């Protein structure tokens, strides 16, 4: 299987990431709607119970921990969506045969920063869950931090590769 061009491994990965992006976007949009509607739930039930002919016999109790967990998932899916979009931009350059461009080094750096933000948010929400009683399972995993370091190393490799490619292109 070839690495570049149409029908390549990069094209197959891009197709898979497009599907993943749609799934993540749908979940992200659903979480955004839930983040707006969740605090309004009790008020909407109260309004519905006042409408003649509507029987509402449910007490909806939304605790602060539920909302914190919802916002945690919203941030997590937002970070995933951002990362998938950057990876698709990188794969686009790979499919067209020129992956060593400065833009890809910047994209890898942005992926690294997004991963750092996601891990920092996880720690923040973990602390916040201890204070508020929300049930968020937060694990600090060494492999995630090693992966973040690897992404930053790849960013530097791509930066150097882009510099070398520019030098080679200028050589007559």
Automatic annotation (TrEMBL):
It comes from the Bacteria. It holds the Pfam family DUF2975. The chain crosses the membrane at residues 12-38, 70-91, 111-130, 142-158. InterPro entries: DUF2975. The keyword Transferase does not apply. Keywords: Membrane, Transmembrane, Transmembrane helix. This is DUF2975 domain-containing protein. It comes from Amphiplicatus metriothermophilus.
């Amino acid at each position: 299987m070839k690495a570049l061009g149409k029908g390549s491994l990069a094209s197959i990965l891009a197709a898979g990431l497009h599907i993943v992006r749609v799934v993540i976007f749908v979940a992200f949009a659903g979480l955004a709607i839930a983040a707006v509607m969740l605090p309004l739930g009790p008020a909407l039930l109260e309004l519905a119970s006042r409408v003649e002919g509507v029987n509402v016999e449910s007490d909806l109790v939304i605790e602060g921990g539920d909302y914190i967990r919802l916002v945690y998932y919203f941030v997590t899916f937002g970070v995933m969506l951002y990362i998938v979009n950057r990876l698709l931009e990188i794969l686009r350059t790979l499919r067209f045969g020129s992956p060593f461009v400065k833009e890809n080094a910047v994209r890898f750096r942005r992926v690294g920063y997004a991963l750092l933000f996601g891990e920092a948010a996880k720690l923040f929400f973990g602390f916040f869950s201890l204070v508020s009683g929300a049930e968020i399972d937060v694990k600090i995993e060494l492999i995630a931090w090693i992966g973040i370091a690897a992404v930053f190393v790849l960013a530097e490799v791509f930066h150097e590769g882009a510099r070398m490619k520019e030098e080679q292109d200028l050589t007559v």
